[in-house]
Each structure stands twice: as C-alpha cells, then as structure tokens.
Amino acid sequence: AFLPLFHTFGRWLEMIGSVFWGAEYAFMENPSVDTMILNMKLSKPTLFISIPKKWLQLYEYVSNRVDIEVDDHQIIREAVEESTGGSLKFGLSAAGYLPPDVFQFFQGYGIELMSGFGMTEATGGITMTPPGKYKPNSLGKALPGIEIKLGKDGEILIKGSYVMMGYFGSSREEIFLKDDWLPTGDIMKMDDAGFIEIVDRKKEIYKNIKGETIAPQKIENFFRDFESLKQVFLVGDHKPFNTVLLYPNYQEDESPVPGMDEQQKQEYFSSVIVTINKFLATFERILDFRIIERPFSDEQGELTPKGTYKRRVIEKNFNDIIESMYTREHTSIFVSETEVRIPNWFLREKGCLSRDIIADEGGISITKLNLSLKINPEQENKNIFRIGSYKYKSDSQYIDMQSLLTNPQLWIGNKEVIEFTGKSIIQWFRQQSISEHLMFHSCFEKVNISEDDRTSLSKKIASREFSIEALHTAYLLIQTENIEDCKLALSYIGNILSDETNHLYKLTLALISRPNISDVTELRREIFKTAISNVNPQQFSEIFLNFTRFDKALLDEEVINFISDKSKGDKNLDVIETSIKNIVEQPVDRIAQSISSLESFFHLITVYASHHPVTFKRIRRFVMRFSVFGKTPEVRVEAVKTLANLRNGLRDWLGKNQKFAVDAETGEEYGWKDVLTFEEGIDAEDRQRIKNAIVKTPVLREAIFLFSSGVVLRLDNVLPGGVWVSNLIAKNDKSIYRISVQTRFQGSFDITFHLNKNFPPGVVKEELKWLILAETNLK
Questions:
Q1: Quick check: is 546 in a domain?
Q2: pTM value?
Q3: Tally of structural domains, the chain
C-alpha cells in the first residue's frame, strides 16, 4: 500500500477490502523508489494501488534495466516481474494523470493496471476502468453502489450509498441538487458504454503529480496586495511542483516595475514569491516563475466573460514557457568548478526559488533565509569534498544533494547540514542503502555541543525512546572527542543494537561500522566494542576488517578480550585468520612494516583459543604453517612464539591434575596412580616414565581433549583401574604403548604414547610439525 490510512480510499477500500477478502495488507516503509522496489520484492503483492507518480517511477525503474523498445518481450517481462516481486496481477492509478502508454506497458506484461476517479465525498472511489477494458485517457465507468450522470454543462454528478451525507456546518440543500445528485466540479464527457474522460475542471482546484489537492485561486489571491503585479497564474496541475506566470503592472503610478531593468525585476519578484511562500503549505509553495510579455486576454480566449481564467487555454497558449520551468528536477550550482545539484523539492520545502540558492565563497547559500553550507574540495584529492561538518568521497562529475538529504546514513551527525536544512530533514528519509556516488569519508573537525544535548539524550536513554533525531544527537556527542560524551552516546546506540527488531537497527549498525567517525583511538575502541556487541559472523567480519585496517593500534588487551568473550566457537575465526594472511602474504619488504600488527593479531588468536579451547587444533594448525613456511624470519619467529603461547594457554585452561578423587560407591579416596594398570612385561623404566607423565602432567587429559574434540577428563570420572597400559611396538629408538581409558560417563578412549629413546628432540619436533600440518592424528 502506498496510500496512508488517513486517506479515504486507503482506509475504506484498501483496509476494509483487505479484511473482506482476507488479504495481507503491507505498507511501504517510505515513498522512495528504492524502498518501493525492495518492499515489493519482500511482500510480493498481487495488487498495488497508488498515485501516477509511483507508477511512473516503477516504469522508469524497469526502463533503466532493459531497453523496452528493443529487448525481447520475455526479457522485459522478467524485468517487470523481478521489480514488482513476481506476483503483481492488478494495479490502480488515480488522483492524477498517467500517460496511456504507461498503462498499456504494464498491461502488456501481465499487470492489469486500471485507471480511476474518486473523491473523499464518495468514500474514495467513483469510477474505474474494468479489468481488460482499459480505454486511453478514460477514467472508467461507475463502480457498484455509485450512480453517475452528466449535467447540462458537462459536470459529472454522483449519488449512491457511498456518497457523503453533507459537509459539516452546511445544509443539504446548499450542497445537493434535485434528487440527491452531488456536483463534483469536474467537466467530463461520457461515451455510450458509460466510460468518462475529464475535459476541464469547473471547480478551482487541481491535483499535483502526488495527488495533493491545490486551490490555485487561493494562492493567486496572495498576490493581490502587490501593486507591481497585474496578473498572476498558478501552474501545477499534474506537475511535481507549483510555478507562476507573472504579468507586471506597467501602468500604475504606485508600481515600481517601470523603473526596473530585467535583473531588478527578477530579484524583486523573487522576493515577493519567497514572502508568499511563508504563508503556504509545503506542497503549495512556488518554486519558479516566468515574467510573460503580454497579459491574458479575451482575444486569445484565455478569459471568461467574468474575467476569470480559462486554465486549459492558458496552459496551452503558454505551454513552451511553462515547460521551461519543468525541464529538470534539480537546480545546478557550480562551487569551485564542481556542479552541485539541489533537488527542486528541497527549494519547495524551504519556500524559496531556484534562483535564490547561489554559490558563494566556500559553498552555497540562501541569502534571503540567512542560510549557508560549506562545500569545497580538498586541495590534495579532488574527489574528497567537505560538505558541512563531514567529508565525503564522490566518484561522479557532480555532487548530488538529493542523496545526502534523503539518506540518514550520510547526514546523521553532520551538524552543519542540519543547521542548513532544519530538523525537517528527518521527514525526508527516503533511502538507507549506501549511495553509489556519494560516500562518507571522515569528520572535518570535532564538534561542540550544548549541555541541553547531553540532557536530552540522557532522557531518551532513560525512557528508551528511539528516534533519528536522538541518533543524530548521539553522533554529535561522539564527535566531541570527550570519552564521557562518547560513552553516553554509545549507551544509546547500544540499546538500539541490542534489539534486531528495532526500526533503527540497520541504520545504526551501518553508522557505527565506520571507524573514521573519530580520530581518537581510545574512542574508536569503545565504538568498535559497541558495534560488535550483537552481530552475526558476517557483520562481525565487515566491522572487524573496517576497524583493524583503519587503525593498526585498535587491538589492545581490553579489545582482544572483548572480541574473545563476544565470540562463540569458531564463528568469528575466519576474519582473524584472513587478517593474518593479508599481512604474511604481502611482498617481503612490506611484511617488515607490519610486524607490530602481526604481533597483535597473533596475540588475538592466542587469547581467542584460550577462551574457546575447541578452536585450539584449528588455530595451532593455522599458525604452524607460518612457523614452517613464513616468508621472513620475523614471521617464523612470531609464529613459533605464538605456538608456545597457544600450548600454554590450553594447559592453563585444562588446569593441573586432581590429586585425589572420591569413589562414589565406596566413599574411598584414590589418585591417578590408583587408576593405572600396566600389562605384565612392560619395561620398568618405560613404566615409570608413563606413570610420571600421567600422574604429574595433564598429558593424558590433553590428548583426550584434542582427539575427542572437546572431552575434558577428570580423575573422578575415571574408575579405579580404568586406565590400561599395554605394549604395542618396541624398537631401539622408541617404544609405542596403547593407553585405554574407561570412564564412568564419557565412554572409552584409546590413544598411544610414543616414548622416544634415541631420536634427537629436534627430529621429534619436526615430525610433530608435519603431522599437525597434514591434519593427521597421532597414532
């Protein structure tokens, strides 16, 4: 659904209709094209009812992906289905004009797009083209429950059970004609099949391309008090915004116009319109004007006998001039030889004209509103621009302010942009995905904030109130470079990130994934810890790489332990290993410059293994490669140190052997030597070595843990006599013994002990290296 629930058609046909048909009713998150397409793919609608602008945007979206004039019909159909979710079968466009070729395009690719006409007074709908019976430029025929007919002057009249009882404060006789017919104010023509087509409007209102109702005469009347104007004509029917045609008063003595040159006229009337815009609603505001060379006249058929405007005639006679005001959707300004594109809707929001926004030294300004914004490129890198309080990277030939103004990923925390736009920017939220042409680069300088900002955010934290405005305040606090401000901000951000269903979760996660929001490593560490507190492995990977690549000093002891504590098993191990590979696989001359970073990553992976012992084998094997195959001596030395630390970490985690346990059946104490049973004939020296190893060291427990993938053996889980030692192979250089362990609850285990006799220690270590690298179990 595009129509809101306060819209009569949205409330009574869409909502009640969904209940009646048992249909699922989905709302667009916001009006942007990207969101519309994303929501369609997500909800896969079968019916979409909207204003013409949305259907035009959908048509343009498909046209940008395939050549609708040349490509095969199947390719175009697939593009239409992919864009609309694949299930769309019906559509309705009303409250404005949509070209017939757009209707016919969608109809040709399986979407029965219908045209309609309605009024709030008729509970939304009055007429609609029936499925499969579309006629170009037609608004269809009467819907069930509504009767229509044309009056003598062609005005369409309606009555029926869905038509209102009357206007508040007015008598029925004032509103309705004989036999309860309600005049609509629209001049229509009707064919023999009952299909209607609009000819003109009897009433002085029209609708813009968004379906918003505008009374032109009301706006034109604001100009009456200006002696400088003789005629004013408002343009905007089926247009994206309003403009005016002005004919100055050249005759009256009070008029200042005769003494003005062309430039002065433009500046003067620009000021007049800016003044009037202050009294108009946002959608009523005037964005541009043209001074015409002649007045509207009877001779040209532009005036009625009463002197009122024949709007259709004037629009036709001055079509070229009117269209010149609608050629582009933006205003271009050149700042330091760079084109800055300002969307026309922004000018409408601010109530100014396209000519009122100008380039000045170091940026753009709207002098009449006392507003300015710094925009300038870096001297060293022309692709980096300062815009307000942030720096952005642009890979296009121009700066598109549309992207910045509608995407909170780009403006949240940019104090100067908000001062330029006002808080109404929060309502312009149209997209959340990363812009292809404009990307956040860094902060320009630290920000000063008021105590009110701190107090306000503290209250939001206490009440758990989540809003874009408060998120913006949080990012202002981060930029103060004060640790207490940063912690306050991160408390608010952390509350959002703790709940994946929070409506600001995705936006907040995208924002906090930026390491360059602060230049202070201490603050960056706090930001990083908040960012990874509640993320999946893929999100962790992206954030980890962003931060560690940006700040080589990020991984201090606290951060390393935080990462290890927040991770589960080997879920986050891939990205840590990738970071190490990226260092050790560099050219030799660059490895030396990265040794300190390598030390940090090796320390991280060591602590990770000690927190998650089930990862020990994988990590040991990974590090062993670099102890053997490392490109430089420095890498090999660091790897050997890490292997020793890994081994010590595992043994610390396993702990020392229990000296005694209590037999649950007899209540008697027993020790490790009591669980050992040796086969007869075992060499006395070998017997003592095995006994010392099992009793005094955790070698048996360590072996079982590694070979069983996680079983931690305790003395109290071994039966007295539960460890059986038998001879397998006896050689001059070594003897191999089988150790069979029977536990109370964890099953049985068979491992082998190799007792070295004549091999040098170096040879033994070398064999172990290759066994580990080959992922071969010791037998």
A1: no
A2: 0.70
A3: 4
